[in-house]
Fold each of these.
Amino acid sequence: MEPIKIALTKGRTEQQVRPLLEASGIDCQGLRNKGRKLIFDDDPRYEFILVKAPDVLTYLNNGTVQVGIVGSDILDEQVNFQYAMLNLSVGKCRFVLASTADFDPQQQRRKIIATKYPNITKRYFDGIGEDVEIIKIEGSVELAPLTGLADAIVDIVETGNTLRENHLKVYARLQPVNTKLVVNRLALRQYRSQIKTLITNLQAADQKAAQSNVKEWTK
Ligand SMILES: Nc1ncnc2c1ncn2[C@@H]1O[C@H](COP(=O)(O)OP(=O)(O)OP(=O)(O)O)[C@@H](O)[C@H]1O
Ligand SMILES: O=P(O)(O)OC[C@H]1O[C@H](OP(=O)(O)OP(=O)(O)O)[C@H](O)[C@@H]1O
């Protein structure tokens, strides 16, 4: 049987999802000691490729891979993307509108908002009936209001440490984020039982891990 090809987001997502893949019975030896390798086929049932988050969707839409593992931030930033099959309990964070303490959300002048996520930002401001100028930046988003590039930012917050250490405040909470498993629709028909097995096992491993995290917290 041909292996299922899975595009896994490198970085945080890969680190958080690998233990779940292992707990679901997948051999991830190569991913553990990966060096500069990008393709991993230790388990004959699966072939993992490591890619940047937005590229997961490129590989998936193109049909080069059957499955993708990616944050919902990346999915929400796309328009009309609908293949999410499994919500994982990792990669949990939230979009917020943040700025310096002297930011006035009611300011009369048209606001300038910096973000890595222009579509999510536009949807949020459209939703509250406000027209803003959006500047797309690629990282260290928190710098934008500190340097005068923008009035405020829309970005992801997890622990809040980055905002705190840079003296920024949350002005609005937007949608939550978590890691999702997404499937190419055509592949779902072709590989139904293999994909079903993957999802069932991963879901069980994720639920078990989430429960033991709750226990850790309540100890
Ligand atoms: N602080 C965070 N806490 C938890 N999850 C996060 C956090 N920041 C990002 N994520 C999630 O993890 C995914 C990957 O984030 P990661 O920081 O590894 O890459 P990135 O910031 O998109 O890219 P880069 O490799 O350029 O830094 C994001 O798409 C999002 O779903
Ligand atoms: O609330 P915290 O736990 O501090 O996490 C939030 C930070 O994490 C992400 O950045 P990332 O580490 O991906 O770096 P980047 O600025 O290069 O995107 C996000 O853009 C925030 O800057």
Note: The chain has a mean pLDDT of 94.
Amino acid sequence: EQNTGSEENSASQAPAVSASLSSAPAEEPASDAIPESAHDAASSESVKPGGTLVAYFSWSGNTRRMAELIAQETGGNLFEIATAVPYTDDYNELLDIAQQEQSEEARPELNGQVENWDSYDTVFVGYPNWWSDAPMAVYTFLESYDFTGKTLIPFNTSASGGFGRSLAGMEESAVGATMLEGLALTESELEDEQAHITSWLEELALNR
Ligand SMILES: Cc1cc2nc3c(=O)[nH]c(=O)nc-3n(C[C@H](O)[C@H](O)[C@H](O)COP(=O)(O)O)c2cc1C
């Protein structure tokens, strides 16, 4: 139940991020916004030994949508990685803030914790590409838990850059984890994301 509050953060109200960094953000809300009822159902954690956690950070909804599909297909529990101080809704401001945090190697404080961490063997961690890396909050998350013996599977959405240089950072921060092949979907691939996700999970033999 810990992450109920974090569902309220700015991401759900944020404008869709446009395809390229140089173009202006779209004004309308993310077209793939999930109805509130679906959110509530998906965000409740329950104890499942040998369980799967699908943790994600998302500002404009793309990675959240991907996380929800992964959770559906694996039977995993969703957890939103959200910062204690929510990010601005303003795309241009966010670009600057994200770049600044990256250059400072910031570890922004998070809002909420995973309950029953020990009950999860498999942890998916998803995030958007921000300036060719993960948002710094993802590193806060990875460094907040003991990944010894866990299987870590990254996933990502981006305009075009994929994981960028984030995988090296993930490996460094998630000490003790065994990392499996991740899935990065670019904006054009997101149109067909269910198919991409299904075949990836089949290769990993992780769909239920
Ligand atoms: C601060 C910021 C920086 C970004 N930097 C990149 C980038 O370097 N390369 C890229 O391909 N996309 C970049 N994007 C686009 C996002 O990765 C893309 O829109 C992603 O799907 C957003 O995920 P979300 O909806 O879960 O927040 C950036 C977006 C933001 C907000």
Note: Residues 38 and 68 are 9 Å apart (CA to CA).
